[in-house]
Every structure is written in structure tokens, then in C-alpha cells.
Design a protein that fits this description.
The chain is α/β, with parallel strands linked by helices and 225 residues long. The protein folds into 2 domains: 133 residues, Rossmann fold (3-Layer(aba) Sandwich), CATH 3.40.50; 69 residues, ACT domain (Alpha-Beta Plaits, 2-Layer Sandwich), CATH 3.30.70.260. The chain is built from 6 helices and 15 strands. The strands form 4 sheets. A 6-stranded mixed beta sheet has the order 2-1-3-6-14-15. The chain has a 4-stranded antiparallel beta sheet with strand order 8-11-7-12. A 3-stranded antiparallel beta sheet has the order 4-5-13, with no helix packed on it. Helix 1 packs across helix 2 and helix 2 packs parallel to helix 3. The chain is globular, with a radius of gyration of 17 Å. Bound molecules: ribulose-5-phosphate. Ribulose-5-phosphate binds next to helix 2, strand 3 and helix 4. It comes from Agathobaculum faecis. This is Ribose-5-phosphate isomerase A. Pathway: Carbohydrate degradation; pentose phosphate pathway; D-ribose 5-phosphate from D-ribulose 5-phosphate (non-oxidative stage): step 1/1.
Length: 225
């Protein structure tokens, strides 16, 4: 079976009646949303908060009852994908550009599960670019500040056009390299006007669920949660 599907299907088992569930975004989350949709058809009673317009459309199609963010006062469980994750459970997310809503929902959640195939496990994050959501107004200046910090921001382009997030903003992708100083980058990003959120999700999850080619699904618990 597809490794992403294995992880998504397994994660859906953690959803229980009565929960408010955060539905992540991306090709792994897609399988998880399908699996939850199947369980809803079979009588599971939940409410869900999607982390992107794409996931919202998928969940709606499957008949999963949805809340808007203004209707949410807590999230019991958030399940989402990652782009990279290290043994300290520090992750980069936002490859699909949904990092802002993903972080809002993950931050509200009592419990977070990250789902992935085994390619996402790394010793040090940073080989994958770090996505940073920036306001359109002043984006040139915000990127100039990033250059001053010695980073090389690349404005995200899709299909020949500047990529615009579900929130109407741009994404600057930072190519920092594996083993970059996470705390230093996080702190410096906080000083730049126009930076709305970044894709560092540091030690947020209670467990990772990893689809592997040789061992099936691995569930890795976070001892610090
Ligand atoms: O953060 C994300 C979207 O903003 C995704 O969760 C991340 O990019 C992983 O995607 P995939 O499961 O397709 O590999």
C-alpha cells in the first residue's frame, strides 16, 4: 500500500466520537480525510476544522460536518502532514502553502499527530526550504530584510504566477540547508515586519505516524508530550 495512505488511514483510527478534529492539508492528509469521511458515513460523530480551502472542499464532499474557525473554541485532535521532521520532533511544514491555517489549528489542539511517509524523517531539518508567509504589501521590503540576514528568499511561483495563499498572502521560501540554527532563524523572522507566520512547527506533536516500505506503519510517540 502507498506509504502516505498507510499513515493517513492509521491516523484516522485515533478520531473518536464527539471530537473537534483539525484536518490537515496535502497528499498525506488527503488520505486521512478520506478515511475519516468513510468513518463518518459509518456513523462517527465529529466536527472538523479544515486547514485549507482544498481540504474544506474535500471534507464537504465527503459529508464531514465542518466548523468555521470563528466557531471553534477548542480542537481535540489535529492531524496533518509534514515536509521534514527531526528526532526532536521539530518539523518544517508549508510545502503546500497552508502553513498559516495549519499553525492556527495545531496551536489550538490538545493533541497533534503528524503523518508522513518515511522520506520525511531527517536527522536535521533544513534541506527542505522553509516557507514563510508574508503580506503582499511590503513583500519586497520583507524579503530584503531576509537577504540582510544572509538568507536567500525565493518568492514562490506556481504555473508562472506568484503563488497566493488561501489568506491572500505570498510565500517566501528560505533555502537554509540542513542543520541551520533553528532558534536563531525563528527569532530573526519575528523581527521582520510583514512576516505573518513561518513553517517551523517545533516539538508540537504527541506522535508521528510514518508509512514505511519495510515495516508497515510506525507510530513514534513523543516522550516529552
Ligand atoms: O504543510 C503542508 C501543506 O502546507 C503539508 O502538510 C506538507 O507539505 C506535507 O505534504 P504532503 O503530505 O503532500 O507531502
Amino acid at each position: 500500500m502507498d506509504m502516505k495512505k498507510m499513515a493517513g488511514d492509521k491516523a484516522a483510527e485515533y478520531v473518536k466520537d464527539g471530537m473537534v478534529v483539525g484536518l490537515g492539508t496535502g497528499s498525506t492528509a488527503y488520505h486521512m480525510v478520506n478515511a475519516i469521511g468513510e468513518r463518518v458515513k459509518n456513523g462517527l460523530k465529529i466536527q472538523a476544522i479544515p486547514t485549507s480551502k482544498a481540504t474544506e472542499a474535500q471534507a464537504r464532499e465527503l459529508g464531514i460536518p465542518l466548523l468555521t474557525i470563528d466557531e471553534v473554541d477548542h480542537v481535540d485532535l489535529d492531524i496533518d502532514g509534514v515536509d521534514e521532521i527531526d528526532p526532536q520532533f521539530n518539523a518544517i511544514k508549508g510545502g503546500g502553502g497552508a502553513l498559516y491555517r495549519e499553525k492556527v489549528v495545531a496551536t489550538l489542539a490538545k493533541e497533534v499527530i503528524w503523518i508522513m511517509d518515511e522520506s520525511k524523517l531527517v536527522d536535521h531539518i533544513g534541506a527542505f526550504h522553509l516557507p514563510v508567509e508574508i503580506a503582499q504589501y511590503g513583500s519586497k521590503q520583507a524579503m530584503a530584510r531576509m537577504e540582510e540576514y544572509g538568507w536567500k528568499p525565493v518568492l514562490r511561483v506556481r504555473d508562472g504566477k506568484t503563488f497566493v495563499t488561501d489568506n491572500g498572502n505570498y510565500i517566501a521560501d528560505l533555502h537554509l540547508g540542513a542543520g541551520f540554527d533553528i532558534e536563531d532563524v525563528r527569532e530573526k523572522l519575528g523581527t521582520i515586519v510583514g512576516v505573518l507566520e513561518h513553517g517551523l512547527f517545533l516539538n508540537m506533536c504527541k506522535r508521528m505516524i510514518v508509512g514505511t516500505s519495510s515495516e508497515g506503519v510506525r507510530v513514534i510517540e513523543n516522550p516529552s508530550k
